[in-house]
């Protein structure tokens, strides 16, 4: 295991406002309560600790619901990506995408139902703070000596799968680690990902197995064929030379009956009673998430889908080149799905919500090849941007910030499909960084039926709002059925082990000077105690608190 310290630092400004505002879920006035702070700078390690205490960011604004007071309690939810168990509806959505890419099939499967991940009763994750900081501290510089002597920072232990554990990996040129684009074909050794600086949609050749971070193929080579050979289509009328079509359920029933007959015959041969033979399904025959994503396409598919992971940073060529296209999709999504006004989804709102406030990039040698920080996971269909997932890659998780897509492609259930692709990305990142195995989905709101879809990703865990311990969702749901707010931890004697803070040791930034709170003359001790309890001991000692 290698240990690396994030060189960046975090500066926040706590906003002790306790008034209520309109709830984006139940639409009640002045019933949504939360604590907030303005993030002038945010390190990826500190943000990892904050979301593990129920915080979430919306641009530069970080907020934490007042769970025992707000109308719709929001429980932080995460999924173990390595142990993912696909549901039938999730499998159908993956198959639907494959049919669309292969044949252009746009028929919706009515058995799947609506994509609840896009029906959130308003743009509730687009949080606008009541107050903004009057000063910009993003460019503040501090000496290494000041930071190290004032802060009590613990290094993040990053467990890697390199070195002796995987010594045959091919080194990758770190200068090209700007964005990730999907290769044309899968290599024999499994998935790989090609890193290409400033990619603007051109295809790249696949790396050798083990050389990249991930390999996921959704589209075939090129677009629709331009030659004389048209893309494969399904016959529009029955072929008289072939037997009539049969219903799929009849075929499946016959297969089951044939399998049972085989088991019974084998049982009789062993001298056992066929009535006692139980049909078992080998787990090795179960298709994985990657199997569905990498399902081969026809030679000339109707469509191609290319995924790119682009760092959120305007100087980045790939991000700058796709900025206008990305904003156009965002605007269309906000207008048609969330019914925002033109002023609510202008470029300034887009910039403040999904570009500004990103955690500071960090690229340690043993971390993900593209580093930690904020990224736009772009979905390009036949060279056209149709969806963007905003993601934070953190030391122990991939955190989903927001998703927006072109409503024209709603029939593809892009909300669920994107979540599955983000789970696949988490699994690929974990191959290099073994501690990065969690997929954070934001908040689970049990009191809002349309927000319960996040609990369908198995296995999932909810964060106890009192002890900050993760509890399996199956054990949490019975309690949430009885009350909207619940202490999820089963042990009534358990306490918040990270909640005891000596406020005198909290780093404070005042008049461009860094000092301990014990040396800071003020009469706001109650407010500082509240802040310390909310962020926890680890963050309280590592995050710099700005006081005007």
Keyword list:
548 residues, globular, 24% helix
Which stretches are low in confidence, meaning pLDDT under 50 for 5 or more residues running?
A: 118-123, 151-160, 162-231
Q: Give me the number of helical elements.
A: 11
Instruction: Name the helix and strand elements from N-terminus to C-terminus, one letter apiece.
Output: EEEHEEEHHEEEHHEHHHEEEHEEEHEEHE
**Number of separate strands:** 19
Helix content: 10-25%
Radius of gyration: 26 Å
Determine the mean pLDDT: 80
Structural class: alpha+beta
Major sheet size, sense and barrel closure: 10 strands, mixed
Give the strand content.
15-25%
Instruction: Give me the side-by-side strand order of the main sheet.
Output: 9-8-10-11-12-13-14-6-15-16
How would you describe the shape?
Answer: globular
Distance between the termini: 41 Å
Folded structure, characterized:
It is a single chain. This protein is α+β, with helices and mostly antiparallel strands. It is built from 11 helices and 19 strands. It has helices spanning 44-51, 88-103, 144-150, 248-269, 289-293, 317-321, 323-336, 347-354, 414-430, 473-482, 525-542, and strands spanning 2-4, 11-15, 34-41, 56-58, 61-65, 75-80, 156-158, 179-181, 194-195, 305-311, 373-381, 384-393, 397-405, 438-444, 460-463, 470-472, 507-510, 513-516, 544-546. A 10-stranded mixed beta sheet has the order 9-8-10-11-12-13-14-6-15-16, sandwiched between helices. The chain has a 7-stranded mixed beta sheet with strand order 4-5-3-2-19-17-18.
